Amino acid sequence: MDCILNKLLTAVFLVLSVSATAKDGRGYIPDDYSWTTQSSNSSGSMPCGGGSIGLNVWVENGDLMFYAQRSGTFDENNTMLKAGRYRLRLYDARNQKSNGKNGNGKVSVFDSRSFRQTLHVYDGYVSVATDKVNVSIWVDVFRPVIHVDIHGRGFTGTVSYESWRYRDREIRKMECQQCSYKFGKVPGLKTTADSIQPYANGVWAYHENGDSTVFDATAIEQDLGSERSRTFNPIGRLVSGGLLVCPDFRFSGTGDGIYASTDYRSWNFTTTKVLTRTQILIALDDTQDGVDAFKRQIRALVSGSKRTKADESRQWWHAFWQRSHIRATGEAAAITRNYTLFRYMLGCNAYGKWPTKFNGGLFTFDPVYVDKRYPFTPDFRRWGGGTFTAQNQRLVYWGMVKSGDYDMLRTQLDFYKRILPTAMLRVRTYWGHGGANFTEQIENFGLSNIDEYGKKRPTDYDRGVDYNAWLEYTWDTVLEFCGMALDANRNGNMNISDYIPMIKESVRFFDEHYQWQARKMGRKTLDGDGHLIIYPGSGCETFKMAYNPANTVAAMRVVATKLCDYLTVNHADSSTIAYFRGVVGRVPPIPTRIIDGHKVIAPAMVWARINNRELPQLYPVFPWHCYGVGLDSLQTAVNTWKLDPYVQQFKGVTSWEQANIFAADLGLTDEAATLNTAKLKDGPYRFPAFWGPGHDWAPDHNWGGSGMIGLQEMLLQRDAEGRRILKPAWPEKWDVDFKLN
After folding, report:
1. In angstroms, rounded to a whole number, what is the distance separating the alpha carbons of residues 707 and 335?
2. Are the C-beta atoms of 714 and 728 separated by less than 8 Å?
3. In angstroms, rounded to a whole number, what is the distance separating the alpha carbons of residues 177 and 217?
4. Which residues lie below 8 Å from residue 614, measured CB to CB, with a gap of 6+?
5. Pick from 541, 523, 543: which is nearest to 533 by CA?
6. Are 293 and 440 in the same domain?
7. Nearest to 610 by CA among 656, 584, 559, 645
8. Nearest-angstrom CA–CA distance, 491 and 483
9. Which residues, in sequence order, are bridge partners of residue 60?
10. Residue 75 lies in a domain
11. Distance CA 119, CA 687 (A)
12. Is the separation of the CB atoms in 399 and 708 below 8 Å?
């Protein structure tokens, strides 16, 4: 307790030290990240973005190239489509050799010993500069428009839009993992061609979904076909894509080529005179109101962006960096730098309609450079485009609570708000009671993934349960997003009134469903102590056919309690408050057991089999903080960490593995330092915050997210009274400057 008190007493001094390190009176300024040589391929790209758009930027063989991706570009199969590849081939007008590097007598402005590519983290943009040219690439945070500003001493060249969707493409079996059909081979399944329409100084490129999509196939499979017209469907007739505008270039024809094992067609635009300055715009958008409406939206974006300055977006990034930061020196410098670079990547989808996906976000690159077994198009990523695996998504978003990025958290919470009616429909249809059921492998339209639901289901199998060894009865992750909302309200006074129906119905489901389930199996709806009988349950995807799994019990207790607090403060009606207080009383205790004479948290009271490598017995530590530093229960959790054989077998730091978080929340400083250093060390690609593929894909965002959480937990926790504990698991020898919420 003396140690905890000392840490609490240091709070004022730490806050002062943060203020003392500010630069030039502008607050915290993250360092730029640069390299001084060109890249070998797209795996050596650098992220850039803003608002809802992400770019992968690199220079290869004298050509500046970038991929563009916008949140929400789902095709008819729920693949998340890229908005193409862009190539700038610029030549030094003052240096024309008889045979340049490109074999055409011209010398690329980027072939220079002064080459420098920089991510300007504080300002949110990427520059590529030599002694001949400076190219600034930035994305408008408030409008979905990419700006490429070029200044030089005199250049000519070509701008190309490159598309692999110039033709219909059959989807091969392993390639199916990019869409919602996942692991099966669907005869005749294809990605249909885009509409690509060049004109004098630009090109339209967009994808138009038809009326029939994977949404329809999924609803029919899950006995909800008759409800389709009344069910949220974000992909039917969706038009997504954009317009490239390059006013100082003229259309000069098409070409064909191959990049990274994928054929493509290019639409090329060439300068008609020597330039010293030009701007290229790419506007991206989507709509379900048809092509004409789509083009009107795009034209309005272009018209409003021609005179847009970068200052407004840069000011947003400046404010973003003042919300929070972590910067260490010495041996922790690299991991806090990578923390910052990853947070930048999250900021690039601050205002996207759809959450940042765990399996690559907006920054995937050619899959052959991730794994040679996947020689597919740049649209490919494992684990789908429109499927939002909840256990993985949560790790992308928990860190935003302590980083103060509440506006970014809304994107994930809105995802659940939109599909709440579908989740309630499932419950009424399948079980006939109240509440909302959100599955683990959940689609952007709110139903279970068509492949994971199970195609060879017994005729008498419960229609509401995935016929899947990993996913059966795995339903409780939604409670983590409920917890995020309630914590954001408590910590940052975030208005969460829009999400309270989702929180209430999520809690109600577990209360009503397990009483309904008990009535099916026996005479009584509660156990002998008046508690819910949570069976069949699931200890994450690992401890199956579980009775009172620790993760579900802790989640229900914490969320229902915080919901009652919220409802009381906000003067909800007394009957509603009374009901949820009753739920709190019906939640069973967190299961425990004895190992070597010591009390530990159990994964569940009992379970039938082990199916994965997750640790639900430590979920009461994180995310639920029922055990931890400053709590009387800490020793039980430490015993679990040290003695539980499954913890010894499964704890790790790869991808979504969370040993680094658990160690921090248990106050185990040395282990937390070791594990978080391993988690946040440079990834295998040129940009150090591109981790993966791990269990998922590259860049693995739940790898970065779990690292982000672990570092935060080393620095800031709360005790039983709600008081902040600073540096509960931070090594004294690591000098750190931080601000968290």
Report:
1. 9
2. yes
3. 17
4. 391, 539, 540, 541, 542, 650
5. 523
6. no
7. 645
8. 12
9. 63
10. yes
11. 10
12. yes
Cα separation, 111 vs 133, in Å, equals 11
Residues 303 and 391 in one domain: no
- Check if the beta carbon of residue 301 is closer than 8 Å to that of residue 707: no
Same domain, 265 and 129: yes
On whether the CB atoms of residues 444 and 388 are closer than 8 A, the answer is yes
Mean pLDDT of the chain: 95
H or E element at residue 648 = helix 645-650
Cα separation, 622 vs 301, in Å, equals 43
In the prediction, which pLDDT does 25 show?
61
In this structure, is residue 300 part of a structural domain? yes
Distance CA 645, CA 13 (A): 41
Q: And the tokens for 417? A: 């708000």
CA dist 186 and 180 (Å) reads: 11
User: In the chain, how long is the greatest CA-to-CA distance?
Assistant: 92
559: its two tokens: 């969320």
pLDDT band at 308 (very low <50, low <70, confident <90, very high): confident
In a domain, 360, yes or no: no
- Quick one: which H or E segment has residue 705? helix 701-715
Q: What is the pLDDT of residues 259-302, one digit of tens each?
A: 999 999 999 999 999 999 999 999 999 999 999 999 999 999 99
Amino acid at 211: D
Relative to beta strand 116-120, strand 169-170 is unpaired
Domain holding 558, by residue range, is 386-613
What is each CA distance from 167 to 115, 131, 164, in whole angstroms? 37, 40, 7
AA identity, residue 111: D
Q: Are 431 and 513 in contact (CB under 8 A)?
A: yes
44 found inside a domain: yes
Task: Report the distance separating Cα 232 and Cα 229, nearest Å.
Answer: 8
Phi-psi region of 625 (alpha: psi -120 to 50; beta: other; left: phi over 0): left
**What is the DSSP secondary structure assignment for residue 31, as one 8-state letter?**
P
Regarding whether 274 and 160 lie in a shared domain, the answer is yes
pTM: 0.95
Cis, peptide link before residue 536, omega less than 30° from 0: yes
Is residue 541 within 8 A of residue 474, CB to CB? The reply is: yes
The first and second tokens of residue 201, run together, are 């100084």
Tens digit of each residue's pLDDT (9 = 90 or more) over 313-358: 999 999 999 999 999 999 999 999 999 999 999 999 999 999 999 9
> Hey, which bits of 309-397 come out as E strands?
325-328, 387-389
Choosing from 567, 586, 613, the residue where a domain stops is: 613
Q: Tell me which amino acid residue 124 is.
A: G
Structure tokens at 640: 């679990």
